[in-house]
Amino acid sequence: MGSLQYNSQMIQKITVSTKKRQQMVDITAAIQKVIGQSGVDDGIIHVYCPHTTAAVTVNENCDDSVQRDITETLARLIPHDAEYSHSEGNSDAHIKAALMGSSRSLFIEGGKLGFGSWQGIFLCEFDGPRTREIWVKIYAER
Amino acid sequence: MGSLQYNSQMIQKITVSTKKRQQMVDITAAIQKVIGQSGVDDGIIHVYCPHTTAAVTVNENCDDSVQRDITETLARLIPHDAEYSHSEGNSDAHIKAALMGSSRSLFIEGGKLGFGSWQGIFLCEFDGPRTREIWVKIYAER
Amino acid sequence: MGSLQYNSQMIQKITVSTKKRQQMVDITAAIQKVIGQSGVDDGIIHVYCPHTTAAVTVNENCDDSVQRDITETLARLIPHDAEYSHSEGNSDAHIKAALMGSSRSLFIEGGKLGFGSWQGIFLCEFDGPRTREIWVKIYAER
Question: Domain extents for chain A?
């Protein structure tokens, strides 16, 4: 049984440019790069979305149509142009972000994400296009 | 690279009184207070909701209307009075809580929550009014 | 204030056989068993679902009808046979899994899950029956 070692005093920040109002952007490669730079072999990575109209999730990254199905179904259930109290015209984006969630915790194994073969990590843009950030913290075994 | 130090052997418990059946209660200040009392400068905080008809989420805390839009949209999609199997009359609350989620992990930076400028942490009440608890654990760098 | 000790270099994997297309399987006892075997008294457990058509959530485990209400409501909101782009016929399962989430973090107290009296941990099957895995990592106080 080893103890824990914290890899960096700093939150690592990944910048993501989104192109559409609603879009799932695959950030798996960027996350893998941060893990590689950390030199951590085994541990845990906390992925955090600091925005209130965007979120983070994990899902299939082989077929783009899955990502389109997710955003289109959310748009059908929570329409952009329904009647809302909030006056900025992006209530749907806040609701989707609150539901999808702002944090996911994943495992690191052998210096890489230890996750399912078909899984990718996505920034979920619900009020783009914008420049967004995803923040990560890595904890390593010693 | 520093290692980790666990701030307290105890789970910290925050008590929240809700006033309505459905309500999002901003618990950001209470969470900040626990972080301040811990004396932790940098680390991670795990926020947990121990209830099955309430949840925890992160979203905008500047404009109350966003919170109303979230609860009203959930009430439209998952009505209180639809036909359900569960006989206690609060199935909608269980479904909303399962979807919204029971845990969020956030970062601590400079002795405060390191999160987005517009973000707040909310207890989501779906079957109130009740007295609820939110549990937190803080892990600090050494 | 104690520091942290990592309980195992390995991700612990729990195998779950699902019986239906949509089903919530209570994995609380299996998680408790892993905690018991670890010998950890206090700490945190990260529960992770490595699949893209299944998820993990926490909710009531006393009355089975709650679980049925959750899967039936999701099936009403996100129908299996709606029109989707993804050609494998399981888009609804991907959408439900992305929304429900792939990770939950819970506390360990006194050698057991420190969570609400009515709470259980569930694998949410959305495209079964299949053999699934749930992965966990435990971090212990020293």
Answer: 14-137
Above pLDDT 90, what percent of chain A?
86
- CA neighbor of C4 nearest in space, from C44, C48, C47, C37: C44
Residues in chain B with CB shorter than 8 Å from the CB of A82 are: 73
The verdict on a CB contact (< 8 Å) between B69 and A91 is: yes
High-pLDDT (> 70) share of chain A, %:
93
Alpha-carbon span C120 to B35, nearest angstrom? 28
Rg (CA), chain A: 16
Q: Is the pLDDT of residue B1 over 50?
A: no
DSSP strands (E only) in chain C:
4-6, 12-17, 23-26, 43-48, 54-60, 103-109, 112-114, 119-125, 131-141
Assigned CATH topology for domain B4-141:
Jelly Rolls (2.60.120)
* pTM of the predicted model as reported, rounded to 2 decimal places: 0.94
**Reported ipTM exceeds the 0.90 cut:** yes
A103: which chain B residues are within 8 Å (Cβ-Cβ)?
58, 104-106
pLDDT in tens, C119-137: 999 999 999 999 999 999 9
Q: Which two tokens stand for residue C33?
A: 């068993």
Top-level class of domain A14-137: mainly beta
